[in-house]
Amino acid sequence: LEDLEAQQAHAECVMRGHVDQDEAEPPEAKRKPKRAPLPEHLPRDVIVHPAPGADRCAACGSAASILGEDVTEVLEYVPASFRVVRHVRPKLACTCCD
Description:
By secondary structure, this protein is α+β, with helices and mostly antiparallel strands. The protein contains one helix and three strands; from the N terminus they run αβββ. The radius of gyration is 27 Å and the shape is elongated.
């Protein structure tokens, strides 16, 4: 009888999530969901956010070069239509002092 009560209590704990990780089954590897790219046929607005002090290096004052950019696309709903607003943030590096 004691074994049955222990099994029942353990089953209730598993259902409620109160069991230690080593006693419960290992959870599946959690993956961050990846969103599919937005359709190309939607109209796009591009907004470029310049970096502060983007023309010169803050340390030595020489010209900065572009390393790449981060792009975020946001789907906006305008009544009776959709449009994609593209936010572009350039990534810069100094050509002299890196």
